[in-house]
């Protein structure tokens, strides 16, 4: 699982060619990724870049939940 928080919208990131094009929003975007492709590829430029078999997610049912709390000052 991977979690990140950005001061930019997904649309702003997709439409920006360089980081100096990014404009901070008035709010934060929280990204919670359900699945990852894996880690441990042999290289980064060929078909071997796929994750090594032991690090791949199996084709099974995965489930998780989370709760977010925001404290106001």
UniProtKB/TrEMBL annotation:
It comes from the Bacteria. Gene3D superfamilies: 2.70.98.10. InterPro entries: B-gal_small/dom_5, Gal_mutarotase_sf_dom, GH-type_carb-bd. Pfam families: Bgal_small_N. It comes from Paraglaciecola aquimarina. Residues 1-68 form the Beta galactosidase small chain/ domain. This is Beta galactosidase small chain/ domain-containing protein.
């Amino acid at each position: 699982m991977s979690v990140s928080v950005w001061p930019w919208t997904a649309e702003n990131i997709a439409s920006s060619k360089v980081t100096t094009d990014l404009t901070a929003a008035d709010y934060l975007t929280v990204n919670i990724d359900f699945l990852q492709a894996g880690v441990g590829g042999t290289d980064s430029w060929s078909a071997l870049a796929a994750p090594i078999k032991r690090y791949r997610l199996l084709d099974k049912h995965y489930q998780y939940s989370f709760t977010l709390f925001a404290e106001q000052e």
